[in-house]
Design brief:
binds tetrahydrodeoxyuridine; alpha+beta; 141 residues; 6 strands; globular; Cytidine Deaminase, domain 2
Length: 141
Amino acid sequence: MEEKYIRLINKAFEIRKKAYSPYSGYKVGAALLCGNGQMYLGCNIENSAFGPSICAERTAFVEAVKNGERDFDAIAIVTGHDNSDVYEMASPCGVCRQFMSEFCDDGFKIIMTKMDKEGNLLDSKILNMNEILPDRFKLKN
Ligand code: THU
């Protein structure tokens, strides 16, 4: 794995600690890498009304887009229950796939990880945007 993606994974591991998820107990960190090298971080933020909860991937994109970023290379995701020693790999939910696809071309990389609670990378899987959301919707004018 390229060094820039290892750095990205480590950032996702760190921001995961900031997740606000008292209802599910499941914490997610996402680190988004732009084409210019800039990184933006996100974590899931839950709500007692459940519906308004937002995933880590979308909070990272919101942060980046409001800073004017439009060119994206990859997102690294670290997911897991706080009480477990190993954070198992998970792939983005359907809403996040559509949200990300708004800003990303087919080659955008989604880096999923399995990590231990000390931050050691145990396993990873990289899929492209067109693999996680084939035949995606785009509004034509
Ligand atoms: N979650 C994410 O942050 N990203 C995903 O792709 C899937 C799920 C969050 C939402 C909720 O706070 C918790 O994980 C359990 O679903």
